[in-house]
Amino acid sequence: MAKKQLTGKVISNKMQKTAVVEVERIKEHPKYRKRYKVHKHYKVHDEKGELKMGDVIIFEECRPISKGKSWKLKRIISSLAEEEFPEIEESKNEEAAEEIKEELKETEGENKEEKKETPETTENS
């Protein structure tokens, strides 16, 4: 018999080698036919400790590892860290990441200076 596989989002990784994953599915009311979301939490075994909150993963059924954990990580589909800072993740270099952060700070500083100059010009006119 084939092992069941589910896809879900990591909502907690505070335990050692374990992550709590939320699986969302859409259910339909039998009488009124309204669709609604149902959520279920699973404890997934993460041997390497590589999961982060927000990751979308595929996990599969396995033998019971503990009282509440009988699922193991198969693979990570998408990582939240890559979505938040794609230019930092692409570089994979600390120096390049620092340069990008400095450039962002400089552009923010220039924007603030431009805002300061516009009120002064209106006062002199």
Task: Please give a structural write-up.
This protein is α+β, with helices and mostly antiparallel strands and 125 residues long. The protein has two domains: 5-79, Beta Barrel (OB fold (Dihydrolipoamide Acetyltransferase, E2P)), CATH 2.40.50.140; 85-119, no CATH class. The chain is 34% helix and 39% strand. It has three helices and five strands. The chain has helices spanning 80-84, 86-91, 94-124; strands spanning 5-15, 18-28, 35-45, 56-61, 69-78. A five-stranded mixed β-barrel has the order 1-2-3-5-4. A hairpin with a 2-residue loop joins strand 1 (5-15) and strand 2 (18-28). The longest helix is centred in the C-terminal third of the chain and has 31 residues, at 94-124.
Write the layout of secondary structure elements.
Elements: E1 5-15, E2 18-28, E3 35-45, E4 56-61, E5 69-78, H1 80-84, H2 86-91, H3 94-124
Parallel strand pairs: 3-5
Antiparallel strand pairs: 1-2, 1-4, 2-3, 4-5
What structural class do helix, strand and pairing data support?
Answer: alpha+beta
Count of DSSP-assigned helices: 3
- What's the CATH architecture of the largest domain? Beta Barrel
N- and C-termini, Cα separation: 82 Å
Helix content: 25-40%
- Counted beta strands: 5
